[in-house]
């Protein structure tokens, strides 16, 4: 923490920096020198699903202050939360990133990527070219509806838990327990590994 001090201050025209500002700057510095680990879920069920998932991964890697550290296998999954047969199947994957962006900026970046891939928002859980959800950000827990952490429905979604477990078998969902146990609890029906397909970890 930077010390706030007026001691030895000889120039009376120099205003002391308010303690609140010092605190904010220190917090930003800490974030910059201390990247956080975040887990993102990617899903696509419109257009060229594999190409779009790869495009989103590459766009995330191109983000200043963000590096993609792991990319899961691809799963073909039944649309969750909607009537069976009412939508095309999804391709889903999970990536692990390290980032100096705070959670709100990471959300903004994900939403900008959704827009760049022409995502249309018409109905809840409607079909989409790309969905970027923040599953977890370090061990942050928040019930802010703009950004709920961990993602409130992640624990119910095998299309999130299965690929997450692949890239991190020891993963914990903050506040909910081991991903392995959550996955055993809900099962992996409707979530099929597509070993014939691959997403690249950007270089
Ligand atoms: N962890 C989170 N990740 C992404 N968006 C979130 C999160 N928590 C809250 N939101 C908010 O949810 C809003 C709706 O997001 P979106 O349209 O992607 O939902 P969805 O993907 O259709 O459904 P679901 O939230 O069940 O995955 C966003 O505008 C965002 O502010
Ligand atoms: N299989 C599958 N179903 C979904 C998905 C998804 O990514 N995959 N995303 C949703 C909203 O985030 C709603 N339903």
TrEMBL record:
Top-level EC class: transferase
Q: Which UniProt keywords apply?
A: ATP-binding, Folate biosynthesis, Kinase, Nucleotide-binding, Transferase
**Pathways per UniProt:** Cofactor biosynthesis; tetrahydrofolate biosynthesis; 2-amino-4-hydroxy-6-hydroxymethyl-7,8-dihydropteridine diphosphate from 7,8-dihydroneopterin triphosphate: step 4/4
Q: Which Pfam families match?
A: HPPK
Domain 7,8-dihydro-6-hydroxymethylpterin-pyrophosphokinase, by residue range, is 124-135
Q: Which reaction does it catalyse?
A: 6-hydroxymethyl-7,8-dihydropterin + ATP = (7,8-dihydropterin-6-yl)methyl diphosphate + AMP + H(+)
InterPro entries in UniProt: Hppk (IPR000550), Hppk_sf (IPR035907)
Q: Which GO terms describe its molecular function?
A: 2-amino-4-hydroxy-6-hydroxymethyldihydropteridine diphosphokinase activity; ATP binding; kinase activity
Q: Which GO terms describe its biological process?
A: folic acid biosynthetic process; tetrahydrofolate biosynthetic process
Q: What is its EC number?
A: 2.7.6.3
Q: Which PANTHER family match?
A: 2-AMINO-4-HYDROXY-6-HYDROXYMETHYLDIHYDROPTERIDINE PYROPHOSPHOKINASE
- The name this protein goes by in its record: 2-amino-4-hydroxy-6-hydroxymethyldihydropteridine diphosphokinase
Organism for this UniProt entry? Streptomyces finlayi
Encoding gene per record: folK
């Amino acid at each position: 923490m930077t010390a706030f001090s007026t001691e030895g201050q000889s120039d009376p025209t120099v205003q002391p920096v308010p303690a609140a500002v010092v605190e904010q700057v220190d917090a930003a510095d800490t974030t910059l020198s201390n990247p956080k680990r975040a887990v993102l879920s990617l899903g696509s069920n419109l257009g060229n699903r594999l190409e779009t998932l790869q495009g989103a991964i590459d766009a995330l890697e191109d983000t200043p202050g963000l590096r993609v550290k792991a990319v899961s296998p691809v799963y073909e999954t039944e649309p969750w939360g909607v009537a069976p047969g009412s939508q095309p199947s999804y391709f889903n994957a999970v990536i692990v990133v390290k980032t100096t962006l705070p959670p709100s900026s990471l959300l903004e970046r994900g939403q900008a990527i959704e827009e760049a891939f022409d995502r249309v928002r018409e109905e809840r859980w409607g079909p989409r070219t790309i969905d970027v959800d923040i599953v977890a950000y370090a061990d942050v827990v928040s019930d802010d509806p703009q950004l709920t952490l961990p993602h409130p429905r992640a624990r119910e979604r095998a299309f999130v838990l299965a690929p997450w477990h692949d890239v991190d078998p020891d993963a914990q969902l903050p506040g909910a327990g081991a991903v392995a146990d959550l996955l055993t609890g809900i099962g992996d029906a409707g979530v099929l590994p597509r070993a014939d397909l691959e997403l690249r970890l950007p270089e």
